[in-house]
Design goal:
By secondary structure, the chain is of the alpha+beta class. The protein has two domains: 96 residues, Double Stranded RNA Binding Domain (2-Layer Sandwich), CATH 3.30.160; 78 residues, SHC Adaptor Protein, CATH 3.30.505. The chain is globular, with a radius of gyration of 19 Å. The strands form four sheets. It has a four-stranded mixed beta sheet with strand order 1-2-3-4. It has a three-stranded antiparallel beta sheet with strand order 9-10-11, with helices on one face. Strands 5-8 form a two-stranded antiparallel ribbon. The longest helix has 25 residues.
Amino acid sequence: MATTLQTNFRGLKPTKSIEEYIEKKLDFLDRYDKYIEHINIEVNDNRSESLSITYQVTISVKGGLLRVEEKGADLYATIDLANDILKMKMEKYKERITNKKTEKEKISLTEEIQEVNEDDSYTDGAYYTPKIAKRKIYSDNRPLHPIEAIEQMEMLGHTSFLFKDIETGKYGMVYKRTDGDYGLIEPENP
């Protein structure tokens, strides 16, 4: 594999056999090498949970990120499941890139910006004060069409996505509705 691959283990001793298994399972990515800039793999073992193994693959592709995360009790089965999903996502990404007619229409993907704790429950006579659990600042603010923003949101596995609209130049947010459709929040024009 010519692409840069970085593997991080937490709570689990990395063995040569595990590393070889991961690399062998990622061999299919060779055919997508021209799209891939970097691959980062996180393997976590949290023994306090029943599904203790977390296997996450984040791929930097031209213009954005693809991410797959799976949890399971068995490391090898979890890797297999994640790679099956990754194959589908890579094929979908390749189709989108090759089906675009002009460079201007090619998919532009941005990084996720933040995840917040949305628990606003009433506890012990006082309302819970939400806190920002994680903040991520991104520098890639290339404008996107709302459909491209939805595609990026799906590839990241998120339910909402903030983006700069290519048509208006303003920021907007797409989100997945409970009925399976999508919503778009836009600022009011002055």
